[in-house]
Write a structure and sequence with these properties.
heterodimer; A: about 230 residues; mainly alpha; MetI-like fold; 10 helices; about 0% strand; globular; B: about 280 residues; alpha/beta; D-Maltodextrin-Binding Protein, domain 2; 2 domains; ten-stranded mixed beta sheet; 12 helices; 12 strands; about 40% helix
């Protein structure tokens, strides 16, 4: 980041460094959410629709994990991916991949827990009908997921918000390497420590703007598809 | 049907997201564990592009305190360490984690404090007497408290002043456990004294009412050293690329480059590598 500039100059000038940082932040957080969705929705549906010993305990733990401290997740992933750790041979520490893994672990409980609640609520409403129609278990899951898609988008946005806003895990497992693992939040932390408070604040406002823009896009998509669905 | 569309949407979403990530395997790059003072002072932003231009090697810097940087290297997560706490560096070498240590450059520490100067030490040259005055007045003092090179230096200075800081610390002594810039921000906010390396101080932009109180004492000397992580401990260390970076730092060209890094016309680091690789 150049010295002695304010954030508005960076935006107005289409600063390439800033653009790369924003792109990396979005790529990491969106990838983490995508992974969390692929694992979390089936997991949520499973917990909502099946009954097995220890299910309640699992739900409590899952709900509790929505509040996982990012710094602890970061440290855990750090120790796993470190060259001296069990997964060290892959050399993933201090790479964007490590940041995706760590953020996916943070987001997964949010998406799985919210999906479980949403699907379970809907199931109590649909149960008689679906059972009477003789719909297969897979068909039930598909119907429930589809009919609760608008609520699930909110779960997804909650997960994305968590990932995009956190600094604890990406700082530890990414290392805040310039041009490689430096994200919006770690840049803000760095500029703050340089005493560059106006630039740090400006970048913070940009980050908030991006998060709001993504939420607005999701909202617009929802309105559009609701209208289409009639 | 609808679900297939949903999954296609999610998959497309994931692909777009992942495609934004830079190539995972960069051809020629090394990881250097270094200190917050070298990063916060802007030295790397200036030096590394020059090195990359010359050799094509990208240097990825992890800026931590010296203690943490050495730990990162001990775990095998860095190829080179570039830090400033000689006692800790020699211990690292003794344990067999480093190949060899080279002096690179020095700057000095300065004692920063508020213009109001409650301990009455502004302009004095004796750092030990100044610290004793701060302790006696119980004037607020911010300590890094993070096993960094600057923290080690601060502890040595308390010792030199004959103060047992563990026994003497009270409300006035605030160990914040963060980097150099954060310590300066904290000192600016609470009008406290703080020990800083001169490079970070010169480039620091949020000074508030802070100024240099004590400078020029021989004991404020701050030596930086560089070491290759021992490939016998960690075979993944990129020996050739790491050594190329070290060779550049201590070469006449690298030394000249370091001496040319200035902010507001002030030189931040003074190269002092020995001419021969002894």
């Amino acid at each position: 980041m150049p010295e002695s500039v304010d954030a508005w100059q960076l935006i107005a000038g289409g600063d390439a460094t800033l653009f790369a940082i924003v792109r990396l932040s979005l790529a990491v957080s969106l990838s983490a959410v995508a992974i969390a969705v692929l694992v979390g929705l089936p997991l949520g549906a499973l917990l909502a629709l099946t009954r097995f010993p220890g299910r309640s305990a699992m739900i409590v733990v899952l709900n509790g994990f929505m509040g996982l401290p990012p710094v602890v997740v970061g440290l855990t992933v750090y120790l796993l991916l470190s060259r001296s750790g069990p997964l060290g041979e892959f050399g993933l520490l201090f790479t964007p991949a490590a940041m995706v893994i760590a953020q996916a672990l943070l987001v997964l409980p949010i998406i799985a827990a919210l999906a479980r609640q949403t699907i379970e609520d809907l199931w109590s409403e649909y149960r008689d009908e679906l059972t009477a129609m003789g719909v297969s278990p897979a068909g039930r899951v598909a119907t429930l997921l589809w009919d609760s898609r608008f609520s699930l988008v909110t779960a997804l946005l909650a997960g994305f918000g968590r990932a995009a806003a956190e600094v604890g895990t990406v700082m530890i497992v990414g290392g805040n390497i310039e041009g490689f693992t430096r994200t919006m939040t770690t840049t803000i932390a760095l500029e703050t420590s340089k005493g560059n408070l106006p630039l740090a604040m400006g970048l913070g406002i940009i980050l908030i703007g991006i998060i709001i823009a993504i939420n607005a896009a999701a909202w617009g998509l929802r309105l559009w598809s609701e209208r289409r669905a009639g | 049907m609808l679900n297939r569309r949903l999954f296609a949407a999610i998959a497309a979403f994931a692909m777009i997201a992942v495609s934004g990530i830079p190539a995972m395997a960069q051809d020629k790059s090394i990881v250097v564990a270094s200190t917050t003072s070298t990063q916060d002072s802007g030295l790397f932003d200036y030096l590394l592009p020059i090195f990359k231009e010359k050799t094509g090697i990208a240097v990825k810097v992890i800026a931590q305190g010296t203690g943490q940087a050495l730990d990162t290297a001990r775990r095998g997560d860095a190829d080179v360490v570039f830090v400033h706490a000689k006692a800790q560096e020699l211990k690292f070498l003794e344990e067999g984690y480093g190949v060899k240590r080279f002096d690179v450059m020095y700057n000095d520490f300065v004692l920063i404090g508020p213009k109001s100067d409650p301990a009455g030490i502004a302009g004095t040259k004796d750092i030990a007497a100044a610290l004793v005055a701060i302790k006696d007045k119980k004037a607020p003092f911010v300590s890094r408290g993070d096993r960094s090179g600057t923290h080690s230096a601060e502890l040595n200075l308390w010792k030199a002043a004959g103060v047992d800081i563990d026994a003497a610390k009270g409300d006035w002594y605030r160990a914040i456990g963060q980097g150099m810039g954060a310590a300066l921000n904290t000192a600016a906010a609470m009008d406290a004294y703080v020990l800083s390396d001169r490079g970070t101080w010169i480039s620091f932009k949020n000074r508030g009412d802070l100024q240099i109180e004590v400078e020029g004492d021989k004991r404020l000397f701050n030596q930086y050293g560089v070491m290759l992580v021992n490939p016998e401990k960690h075979p993944t260390v990129k020996v050739d690329l790491g050594q190329a970076f070290i060779d550049f730092l201590i070469s006449p060209e690298g030394q000249k480059t370091i001496s040319e890094y200035k902010i507001d016309g002030k030189q931040l680091f003074f190269p002092d590598a020995k001419p021969e690789r002894s």
